[in-house]
From TrEMBL:
This is Diacylglycerol kinase. It comes from Juglans regia. The lineage of its organism: Eukaryota, Viridiplantae, Streptophyta, Embryophyta, Tracheophyta. Residues 434-474 are annotated as: Disordered. Its EC number is 2.7.1.107. One of its GO terms (molecular function) is ATP binding. One of its GO terms (biological process) is glycerolipid metabolic process. Residues 450-467 have a biased composition (Acidic residues).
Amino acid sequence: MVDSNSETAFLAEDFQIPTYILKPESEVVTAPNVPACPVIVFINSQSGGQLGGNLLVTFRSLLNENQVFDLGDEAPDKVLRKIYVNLEKLKLNGDEFAGNIEKHLRLIVAGGDGTAGWLLGVVCDLKLSHSPPIATVPLGTGNNLPFAFGWGKKNPGTDDHAVKSFLGQVKKAKEMKIDNWHILMRMKAPKEGSCDPIAPLELPHSLHAVHRVSEADEMNLEGFHTFRGGFWNYFSMGMDAQVSYAFHSERKLHPEKFKNQLINQGTYAKLGCTQGWFAASLFHPSSRSVAHLAKVRILTKKGQWQELHIPNSIRSIVCLNLPSFSGGLNPWGTPNQKKKRDRDLTPPFVDDGLLEIVGFRDAWHGLVLLAPKGHGTRLAQAHRIRFEFHKGASDHTFMRIDGEPWKQPLPVDDDTVVVEISHLGQVNMLATENCRSRSVHDPTTPSHDDAEEENDSNEEDPIEDEEAFKKFGAADTFKIPDGVDISHLS
């Protein structure tokens, strides 16, 4: 969590919400004054070893314990629906206090990126007239969402002083919109075995959560299953996802070894070596490159579909929404004036409806991100992107959505696996004054010279059927199913 240097005394009444707002059956007892920054807090008590549980105790000791929720006990969609229904009833009865609570309400979520993404998705699905902005407490391994908005990436302190300091930052934080992205995946149904999830596939929870399309849906094809989901930070495929898959598989087998953030990060680095990511050209032949695995098309800023040229050396491709990847690295960087002019590239704004598409040759290539102006191979910025995998070089690849990896079977017959990504909507985040994320509406966004990258070329392609995208509803897109153990979400 961010430390505050403010000398302002902590006032619990600035954040506390009366019980009757939170529990409809309670007696109406209002506070003397409307809190300046009413908050509802969601904590994954299983995240960060003992840190999640300790945070839960501290927040409940400082606030009304009824406004602090353990995600292991109560799902955020049910909590927020109950509270907002109650707020509407109270406002209809002339309760101005309730109206002010709703107007100034802010949400806090403590957990890994998976936990934070869960809450963001729930807020998106509620379709509120004014979505409450969200602050994130880093309790995971990567913590890309908190880091992108200035809340840090190291696990926080959990004592009274640290939590009071954090609440002070939440009170001062600015609102910033963030794009969210719909992902559709269509693949052929298996001939035998369970198909929920499709055997032998363990899809990420954002894709588990949605139902297959109905027979009347245009995207439905005989013999195929279609899944819908969403993400906030990135979709990636290739070797980076392979290393992540190895890490998650190891953690699933030996959870007792993954209780410390530093140990987790060290294990991740070791797996990068053992998986051959530091010598991709030797351990993974060119037939495993992204260009050999998939045909990729993008919808450009000018509204035209084009085939995306991907160099044969690229072993990993990242479609990025936030300027934070793999624990805080920025693969896109800030294009200099020449790149802006010649290739129409912009900085990585988080609310411009564009994904930054970046390629990497191997882990050594990724290390250039540690340099002041380092970046990956900038391939394109796009409103939509479509991957088509046909029978060919490999029988599988690895994919990842916001830190959740899976091993994706590729066609063995003449069928096609399709992954389509399109813009879905926006929610409000809370950001510190010096956060690295930038809004397209912010005139203070910096511009500086950057390193060179490979040239690329695109060829026009016919425009896709627009009707398919009109059906991209957000309902239940990000909801974690009942009975799912959230302890692994990080």
